Amino acid sequence: MDRYEPFEIEKKWQEFWERNKNYKVTEDANKKKYYLLEMFPYPSGKIHMGHVRNYTIGDVIARYKMMCGFNVLHPMGWDAFGMPAENAAIANGTHPAAWTYKNIETMKKQLIRMGFSYDWSREFATCDITYYRWEQWLFLKMLDNGLVYRKKSFVNWCGSCQTVLANEQVEAGLCWRCKSEVTQKELYQWFFRITSYTEELLEYCDKLSGWPEKVTTMQKNWIGKSEGAEIIFPLQKGNGHIKVFTTRPDTIYGATFMSLAPENPLSVELSMETPREKAVKAFIEKNIKQDKAALNADDFEKEGVFTGSYCLNPLTGSYIPIYVANFVLMEYGTGAVMAVPTHDQRDFEFAKKYGLSLKVVITPKDKELIPEDMTEAYEDSGIMVNSGHFNGMENEKAAKEIVKYLEEKGLGSQKVTFRLRDWGISRQRYWGNPIPIIHCDNCGAVPVPEDDLPVILPDDVNLTLIGRSPLADNPDFVNIQCPTCKRPAKRETDTMDTFVESSWYFARYACPLHNASPLDKEKVSYWLPVDQYIGGVEHAVLHLLYARFFTRVLRDLGIIEFDEPFTNLLTQGMVCKESFKCPLHGWLYPEEVKEKVCTYCGQEITIGRVEKMSKSVKNVVDPESLIEKYGADTARLFCLFAAPPERDLEWSDKGVEGCFRFLSRLWRAITENREKFIAIEPFDGSTSLSGDIKDLRRKTHLTIKRVTSDIEERFHFNTAISSIMELLNMIYQFEIPKINDLLILRVLKEAFQTILLLLYPMVPHICEELWERLGNPP
Q1: Is residue 173 a contact partner of residue 184, using CB atoms and an 8 Å limit?
Q2: Element (H, E) at 660
Q3: Which residues of 342-351 are buried (b: 16+ CB within 10 A; e: fewer)?
Q4: Which are the contacts of 166, defined by CB distance < 8 A and separation ≥ 6?
Q5: Is the dihedral angle over the CA atoms 421, 341, 217, 225 positive or is it negative?
Q6: d(Cα 328, Cα 261) in Å, to the nearest integer?
Q7: 263 and 413 Cβ atoms separated by less than 8 Å
Q8: In sequence order, what DSSP letters do the residues of 683-733 get, joined into one string?
Q9: Helix, strand or coil for residue 116?
Q10: 5: closest CA among 713, 755, 660, 605?
């Protein structure tokens, strides 16, 4: 009797699929297309269980759609540029390119070993010259259309990685990659003008009906539309003024001081030639470099310094002091905030600390507020007081009336602002896409001529430099003739943020070998937009927002004809496991623990909480070891069965063993009785049935309905698998070796083949093998 030997079976069918090019697709006008895409991986060297889960979910959907007759595009590639490759090269004495392509080779073999249905003919890495050459071309087109500019700005700086970080890459004041402290540094930076599409990006959030609501909400919050008023506060001295944006114009009568961001040019200007000048400059120097992410911390200490100057509250006629405050952001509004301490908690705490005056302008309907007795700001709605002729109004109505009044007096206007800021793409590292700009003392920043593209990343660089880009130390790369005036010039040495590469890769999969332009419009029109996109919720803001922006850029350049890149989005949960810690040896891998003791010293270990699998606490399971022991199909089945895709999956060794036992049970049920089924046709419904065999056929078709519904409507593979298990249990109630009735055997064969067809998208290797053993062609 044959045993279930996953390794041999899986190798056989993977070679069969490769030999027959089962998953290679081309455009076919006679078939309905379906584009299934998982977020492509960074080639770190080995796949992890998060990869396995993500790509298994995608593979089930792709195979299911193939079985439904769709022309399915299911590609895979590599998000290959970035800091980790450069850091690894420095640590290991290798070149980032060699490190990257070696990792790609390793990971590709692992993905093939999982049996995923990728069209590998479309594979590319973003560090391939044939890819980043067209990204440089797009940069130049965006520059021509006013979507790219350069300016000096304060940026998040990681001294360890020697590069700029986006705000989203700063976590609790630390670099997301190396966990080093992040500071502020002023540098010249290249920006993409994503704010040109702010309104459209926000509007279309409500049209993304196939996206999880939590993701569209996160995008809306990041774009951060605020409606309010821009108000002019004249300065006490001179003819100048301060403009502020506020969402609470109803509180203007309660504004008792002004707060400026440390970066605001007025912060220094208003203190000049006053006794406060020295103190203001010292305060700015201290706070201008602070991590902006720290502002949201509960224990963040609000500090400020008086500039020595005053401005006029335009509606009260009172002069109010102007402070520089560490909690005011230059990026929000105008970098100046009218402070209303009685109705804003942040301002309340600041006013209490520095002894500034309080003035109540909104009270509850049933209670009078006395400033001296207040222990916190009153931020709810209420009735206007101490607000001139607006007294007695409800504050929401008063807000509109105050804006009208300000407009009539020429003191302000209705205003809409956004939290979203332009995308700084400059990175001061080597392993990235070179920015195609030449700096000339005579001509300024000159675009590299299109005929001179690509600007190729040189191989010979010094990666151990501290404080400057390795490209800047390469004279063969840097020194060049200005294409305009022919004088000596220098190349730009910043490289692009790696999120640029991931902002359009999904479109390039439609035509990876196209060399005449970035995209083949006809092929892209056939395949795009992506019908189903799958990836982690951690990319809900950065990657997805940038991809939506780039799609609009490509559309407006006439390269594509759609508005949104991803019709449907599935964000899968994390793979979690408890951690183990030894008093002597620290964190331990699962294989280093036996019966709750450390295998090195025999001491009892501490079992930690269940959390996301992470190398830092070693609570990881090696997919390769898992596959070697149980096979790819078992790994796939467990990832699908243990939890619905949108929820976190808690790792369970017993759960894995249970999935292996189920597949072994299915294997035995068919192979032990193969001779009874191989020569007969499955039941076709032509004869009436009764009794247990009628119940089995009814169960078979109910299972088809349930599994189809679970996959098609909800992607709830766990409940689909449960239904299939129930059907197999029902089959086991029949003593097949003793059955000789042809009709019963035909119904049983129909049930078995139904199980194989339903399970095929989830565990394709064993299903292919058993299908063939039942006498069917592959």
Answers
A1: no
A2: helix 653-671
A3: bbbebbbbbb
A4: 156, 423, 424, 497, 499, 542
A5: negative
A6: 5
A7: no
A8: P-S-S---HHHHHHHHHHHHHHHHHHHIIIII--HHHHHHHHHHHHHHHTT
A9: coil
A10: 660
CA 757 to CA 63: how far, in whole Å?
A: 11
Q: Report the alpha-carbon angle 72-75-76, nearest 5.
A: 155
Answer yes or no: are the C-beta atoms of 728 and 645 closer than 8 Å.
no
* β pairing state of 257-260 and 319-325: parallel
Cα–Cα distance for residue pair 49/572, rounded to 1 Å: 12
Residues linked to residue 73 through DSSP beta bridges, in sequence order: 35
* Residues facing 170 on adjacent strands: 175
Q: What are phi and psi of 67, to 5 degrees?
A: -65, -25
pLDDT at 176 over 80: no
Distance CA 552, CA 308 (A): 48
Lookup: tokens for 372: 């001296």
Q: Distance (Å, rounded) from C-alpha 479 to C-alpha 458?
A: 13
Report in angstroms the alpha-carbon separations of 446 from 143, 219, 769.
11, 35, 61
294 pLDDT above the threshold of 70:
no
- The structure's pTM equals 0.90
pLDDT digit string, tens, across residues 238-262:
889 999 999 999 999 999 999 999 9
Are residues 270 and 322 in contact, defined by beta-carbon separation less than 8 angstroms?
yes
Report d(CA 159, CA 762) in Å as an integer.
46
Pair of tokens at residue 295: 């502002």
Burial of 185 (0-12, 13-18, 19+ CB in 10 A): middle
Q: Is the pLDDT confidence value at 295 over 70?
A: no
161-170 residue pLDDT tens? 777 776 656 7
Tell me whether residue 587 is exposed, middle or buried, using C-beta atoms within 10 angstroms of its C-beta: 0 to 12, 13 to 18, 19 or more. Answer: middle
Dihedral angle over CA of 606, 611, 615, 616, nearest 10: -70
CA distance 404 to 390: 12
Alpha carbons 638 and 619: distance in angstroms, whole number: 18
Spatial neighbors of 698 by CB under 8 A, at least 6 apart, are none
Calpha distance 403→410 (Å, rounded): 10
Residue partners of 775: CB distance under 8 A and separation at least 6: 677, 678, 679
- Residue 436 confidence (pLDDT) above 90: yes
Residue of 372, 260, 386 whose CA lies nearest to 323: 260
Cβ pair 447, 437 in contact under 8 A: yes
- Cβ neighbours of residue 39 closer than 8 Å, sequence gap 6 or more: 54, 502, 533, 534, 535, 536, 539, 543
Count of alpha carbons within 13 angstroms of residue 510, beta-carbon side: 24
* E strand or H helix that includes residue 569: strand 566-572
Structure tokens that stand for 239 in this block: 């003819």
